[in-house]
Amino acid sequence: MGKKKILLVEDEFFLAENIRNRLEFSGYDLSYAENGEEALKMLERQPCDLVILDVMMPIMDGIETAKNIRANKNSKICLFFFNSQSSPSG
Amino acid sequence: MEKKIIEVLLVEKNAKDVALVKELLLLQRDVDNSFHLQVAKDVEFGKNLLKQIVFDVMLMDLSSPDENPLKDFEILHQLSPNTPIVTLTSKEKSELGAQAMRAGAQDYLVKDNIESGLLTRSLIHAIERGQLIQRLEQSLRTEIEERKKMDLLKDEFVSTVSHELRTPLAIVKSAIENLRDGIAGDLTEKQGRTVQIAARNLDRLTTIINDLLDLSRLESGKMVLNRHRVSMASMVQELFQGYQAQARAKNVRLVADIPADVPEVYVDPDLIVQVLNNLMNNCLRYTKSKIVVKIARKNGSSKSESETFKSMVVVSITDDGEGIAPEDMGKLFGKFQQINRPTGGAGYKGTGLGLAICREIISQHEGTIWAESELGKGASFLFTLEEYQPEYDFWPKITATFEDARLNKEALAVLAISIENLRDLKKTKSDEEIHEVFNKIQSVLKSQVLRRGDKLFHYSQKEFIAVVAQTGKAGALLIKDRISKVLSDISSFRFRVSFAIFPEDGSTPEIVLKKAIEGPENLG
């Protein structure tokens, strides 16, 4: 069985690198997009099993991106949000 | 040098007095100023002139046989509040002049005693004082605006710092975790230990930043407490569950001293849990063998402004460590005040903000927090919280109930139960006794009268109990009978039960409640 594919969408490059190292270490096939728009383009070319989305991002944020992915009825991609801001007021 | 022209409005009915003032102003030997006089024979005329011309000063006679000369004064003063006013009175009515000064006049002169120098001096001084006041008001306004701007900047700063600090923190944290978990390659023991130190101190840095942000949010006064009716006893039980492992590891016993009848409190649970955690962490750091959390009821002998009987709940957390030196007691709740106390070992160090946060949180709950200690005998931290009173929920609850009824297009009956002659009774009965009666009524209502859908609200600031039921007038009459029957058994007080119906009697809870209380339905 091949490796599961994960698309990581995160605008902070270094944070993305750390997450990517950890997930690759755990045996996943990682690809990376800097924002929601880029992520949607990549998904058109190549499907994946899981998308990890930062909530706050420039150009297209996580929520908007998720709506776009969900709008495609054929997609069975799992979505996973994360937020580096622990406080809702931040 | 050219003289400055001063525009004077004289409000004077009496032609002789007009002539007198004219003469005095012309006679004056003021080198810098010359006076230009316009005369209004009454207030109406004065108002018209004030609308057209900017006067430097007004001179107004209060001694005319008008019914209310002060009212005239106020009319003109309000119309042009920045024009200073000097009043003239007769000797007999000089008290009027003093009254006018209290209402904003700059000076008053008694007509029989005026000579030229006095009049002009008074007018000039009135103008100067008026200008001074305006300048002061202006600078005060500027200061207030500046302060508002600063507050805004501070808020912005805090949220920017919050965001800007957290992102790099998250990156460093994930990098350290990757190192620790061997993702970047296996570590030697020494490398592992080094990474461990970095991780622990990163946690400390995160805590300090979070504490600072918490504190600045609390201090900004913009924090809205999310208050609920909460059992302090179960809060402490949960607290102990969370600390069990830590306590066992340190061989510390956790003791709860909570009486069965301890009342509920009305607090923001998240914030109070934060206080408990802070105090608990402190105690664990300093204690030798046990920590005792005690909850007690402190009957309030003090009455609040609304004369409601208020009781407090006192929570204390006590350790059996070395205690706090008397000279350090005053520093405890300050920011970044580290005092020298023998701790449980290396690495135990607070942020220096924990107790300052506790104090802010408790004071926002209108409580107090303090410490008691004797060297060698441990330390206690105590705080008070107001006991939960049903009326705290009154408006939120009744408003929500009305909203529901409005949406579902249902009728609501609001019944008000009050004690007859409460005011007189208060002279002979203590607050506690009356409080008890209200409690008794509530429990009787709960057990014998209320059915599902009836909502019971006790609103003791106005000293009545409201029962809200999903029913119309017919239902309300039945409930009223039931209430009357059970109340006649319970005490020697005489009760009054009356009701009003939503939406017939009013559209808001305020109106319906008012009608219910005033309602004619009497119980003998």
Structure description:
The complex is a heterodimer of chains A (90) and B (524). Chain A is 37% helix and 22% strand. Chain A is built from three helices and four strands; from the N terminus they run βαβαβαβ. In chain A, helix 2 packs parallel to helix 3 (62-71). Chain B has 524 residues and is an alpha/beta fold. Chain B folds into four domains: 4-136, 3-Layer(aba) Sandwich (Rossmann fold); 157-219; 228-386, Heat Shock Protein 90; 390-518, Alpha-Beta Plaits (2-Layer Sandwich). In chain B, helix 1 (15-27) links the parallel strand 1 and strand 2 (33-40). The A-B interface holds A 12, 14-15, 18-19, 21-22, 25, 84-87, 89-90 and B 159, 162-163, 166-167, 170-171, 174-175, 177-178, 181, 183-184, 210, 213, 217.
Which second-level CATH architecture of chain A applies? 3-Layer(aba) Sandwich
Query: How many angstroms separate the termini of chain A?
Result: 42 Å
Task: Give the CATH topology of the largest domain in chain B.
Answer: Heat Shock Protein 90
Helical content class of chain B: 40-55%
Unreliably modeled segments of chain A? 86-90
- Give the overall pLDDT of chain B as a whole number: 83
> CATH topology of chain A, what is it called?
Rossmann fold
Envelope shape of chain B? extended
What is the makeup of the main sheet of chain B?
Answer: 5 strands, parallel
Total of domains of chain B? 4
Strand content of chain B: 15-25%
CATH architecture of the largest domain in chain B: 2-Layer Sandwich
Short description:
Chain A is an alpha/beta fold. Chain A is 37% helix and 22% strand. Mean pLDDT of chain A is 81; it is low at 86-90.
Question: Notable features of this structure?
Answer:
heterodimer; A: 90 residues; alpha/beta; Rossmann fold; four-stranded parallel beta sheet; 3 helices; 4 strands; 37% helix; globular; disordered C terminus; B: 524 residues; Heat Shock Protein 90; five-stranded parallel beta sheet; five-stranded mixed beta sheet; 14 helices; 49% helix
